[in-house]
Amino acid sequence: MNIQRTFAIIKPDAVKKNAVGDILTMIHGAGFRIIGMRMLEISVEQAEGFYAVHAERPFFNSLCEFMSSGPIVALALEKENAIADWRKLMGATNPANAEAGTIRKKHASSIEHNAVHGSDAEDTAKFELSYFFAGYELF
Ligand code: GDP
To answer: Reading across the β-sheet that carries 33-40, which strands appear in turn?
Structure first.
């Protein structure tokens, strides 16, 4: 398996509850290299652009308002099999279904306020990395 890159966000709920340090420790503990990291706030419009594939879903407006409700941490992660391994470390979308040892089991409070985001495929990882990072910002 080749080295792969994926895109992650520590969402506003996790930043607000001071879980950034613990989540970064879990990321390193699982063998990821952090090759890009930025704390920022995004507008509702920027969240809508990021989540455009979800535009038809009933929770779209709520999700975009949540994602622009406070600071987030955008991360570029690298390791073998990074996309699938990061989704495994995140846990299920709904924390009620998340396995023990996952970030969402530990830090998510609801299906929407679920602590972290992760790309679900190579093409979305590419789009999402380029939405938040220029190539020269990745190490
Ligand atoms: P993910 O890939 O596990 O993040 O899940 P999805 O791509 O299906 O959904 C994107 C994000 O939308 C999730 O991480 C949640 O923050 C939110 N979300 C997903 N399903 C629901 C839902 O049924 N209700 C609400 N309010 N938010 C949801």
So the answer is: 33-40, 72-80, 3-10, 116-118
**Domain-embedded: residue 88:** yes
Strand partners, 116: 10
Q: Any idea what the CATH number is for the domain that residue 76 is in?
A: 3.30.70.141
Ligand 1 center–CA 76 separation, angstroms: 20
Residue 40 maps to a domain: yes
Q: What is the pLDDT of residues 110-125, one digit of tens each?
A: 999 999 999 999 999 9
pTM: 0.97
The total domain count for the chain is 1
Residue 4 in contact with ligand 1 by CB distance below 6 A: no
Any atom of ligand 1 within 6 Å of the Cβ of 114: yes
Tokens 């419009």 locate to 45
Residue 139 lies in a domain: no
What's the gap in Å between 53 CA and the centre of ligand 1? 12
- Is the pLDDT score of 1 beyond 80? no
